[in-house]
Amino acid sequence: MPTLQLDILVVPTYSTLTMAVADASTYPTTPPNVTSPSIEINVPNFGIVNLPFVVNQLNVFSSSNLGITPVGINDPLPDGIYYLKYSVAPANVNFVEKTIMRVDRLQEKFDGAFMRLDMMECDRAIKTQSKVELTTISFFINGALAAANNCATVEANRLYLQADKMLNNFLRNNCGCSGNNYATVTTYY
Questions:
Q1: What residues contact 60, with CB distance under 8 A and at least 6 apart?
Q2: CB-based contacts of 40: which residues, under 8 Å, 6+ apart?
Q3: Helices 153-172 and 104-119 sit at what angle, rounded to 10 degrees?
Q4: Which long-range contacts (CB under 8 A, 24 or more apart) does 120-127 make?
Q5: Distances, alpha carbon 124 to alpha carbons 50, 119, 128, 154, 177, in Å
Q6: What is the pTM of this model?
Q7: 8-102 to CATH, choices 3.40.50, 1.10.150, 2.60.40, 3.30.70
Q8: pLDDT tier at 84 (50, 70, 90 boundaries)?
Q9: Which residues have C-beta within 8 Å of that of residue 113, sequence separation ≥ 6?
Q10: Residue 36 backbone class (left: φ over 0; alpha: ψ -120 to 50; beta: rest)
Q11: 3-state SS of the chain: helix, strand, coil percent to 5?
Q12: Which pLDDT tens digit goes with each residue over 4-15?
């Protein structure tokens, strides 16, 4: 007979508006006979919220049910480090904790910059430099995720802020393309 082994997975939703947490636990009975399943989520800059958790299901959270915005209004969730704790009674014995870093808002901004690059009319040298800059920004984003996955929260935040700063600068400079990169020469015959 299997023993109780709690586990959760944070599943990508590819949306800045939602965070999905799947129950990946092993329960001793089918259907699970557990009491008071709940999840505690520490949302960056907003504090801790404790919510009911549906076992053997994908639980989807938004700014509304996390208490960030009023019910029915869903704003993008903040990027940053989230601490999650799934527990069943007795909660002081039966729990699992996860730490994740959300970068969905930054990734959305990065995707927009990347798509703008492909649509711009840049000369080859400027386009090559822009690709190098975007690749560097991508490395910083991935570095932030790797640091967060290894409990290096200070480093994760530092890398995230650097990526955001570089991306803002990239967008502000519009990849150096102004449409006036080429001088027109008038030829008289």
A1: 13, 18, 19, 20
A2: 48, 49, 50, 51, 83, 84, 85, 87
A3: 30
A4: 120/174, 120/175, 120/177, 121/177, 121/179, 122/175, 122/176, 122/177, 122/181, 123/181, 123/182, 126/175, 126/176, 126/177, 126/181, 127/175
A5: 53, 13, 6, 38, 11
A6: 0.83
A7: 2.60.40
A8: very high
A9: 134, 137, 167, 170, 171
A10: left
A11: 35, 25, 40
A12: 999 999 999 999
Token pair in block for residue 184? 């027109």
The predicted pLDDT at position 183 comes to 38
pLDDT tens per residue across span 160-184: 999 999 999 999 986 555 444 333 3
pLDDT for residue 175:
57
Q: Which ranges in 50-97 belong to alpha helices (H)?
A: none
Categorize the per-residue pLDDT at 55 as very low, low, confident or very high, splitting at 50, 70 and 90.
very high
**Which amino acid is located at 46 in the chain?**
F
